Amino acid sequence: MDRRTFISAAGIAAVGAASACSQGSDGTSERVAAPAVNRGRTRRLRMVTTWPPGFPGLGTAAVRTAELITQMSGGSLEVEVYGAGEIVGAFEVFDAVSNGVADMYHAADYYWQGRSPAFNFYCAVPMGMTPYEIMAWVEYGGGQELWNELSNPFNIQPFQAGNTGHQMGGWFKREINTLEDFRGLRMRIPGLGGNVIRELGGAAVALSGGEIYQSLQSGAIDATEWVGPWNDLAFGFYREAPYYYGPGFHEPGSALALGINLGVWESLASDHQAIVRGACHAANNQSLAEFNHQNGLALRTLTEDHGVQLRSFSDDIWLEVGRICEQVVADSANADAISRRVYDSYLQSRRLVRDWANVSEAPYYRQRDRILGR
Fold first, then answer.
1. What is the pLDDT of residues 189-209, one digit of tens each?
2. Which of 57, 259, 278, 309 has the greatest number of CB atoms lying within 10 Å of its CB?
3. What's this model's pTM, rounded to 2 decimal places?
4. Where does this protein hold substrate (predicted)?
5. Binding site residues, as ranges?
């Protein structure tokens, strides 16, 4: 089944799932039809993204979300996708949607931490939540309501619409054996992870994806994180920085966001709003599955075909990084009232799901690896 066929089938399934069962007067179940999708005049919406056009995983998650919206609406909503730089620059998409230049964006919301540190929590924070944990918080732990409260004053309605899974620690031109090796290190790393690098004595540099390779090549930076094996292989970072460290401390599960201009969102009929929500849910789940599969394939290519050297940070580095992460994330919560509320909600949910993970997945992984090895 090719991708376009799969998306079409997923769209039909999602719309069909909107039908529900209810109890009839005789106690038996009866089908209740979903609201009919408006198939009148086509409404065209423009999506701008922070990703290079057509980039695997990140760019295709945006395209997938747009295609799902279009197909699930029967074409009555048509979403056109523009990569970074095609209408506005990568870091300009938030303002473009807020001001109505574009209708929606697909991005990583920690890029907007200059407006409020609370945006970091809706993508990734150092030593923070895994993909399943952040999904649980946003969907059921009160995270979505706080996200609305955070974003709506900027004229934006947000939704989860992708997740890269656990990210790697990054590509380095030299080995990182001690904490001293971070001193003077110039590393491309956004969000609160950049604050951690600064606390370690390095320099954090903000670059869009399309700028990273040239900066490594020219020596403008000494290291970079990006995503994981799949996306990193596509950019060819291994040619410039041979040491690949993982896992990453800075982004244990990076959620991607669809932000819709609030006026556009409120102008949509209820069935169209339901379709957008459903498309975002479907894209979010499919993105995580895709990244897990493709990262496994790409890791083999990097190590077996390109001789990439995998490295792990030492326990001493992890201990100090963990201490700094906790302080950096806590400090970010003191910036404004909404950041404090988001932080408190985030911690409460993380503790809840951590207790479950500690008796379920974590010991299972240890036992599986002990018994089966590779």
1. 988 999 999 999 999 998 988
2. 259
3. 0.85
4. 167, 188, 225, 251
5. 167, 188, 225-226, 251
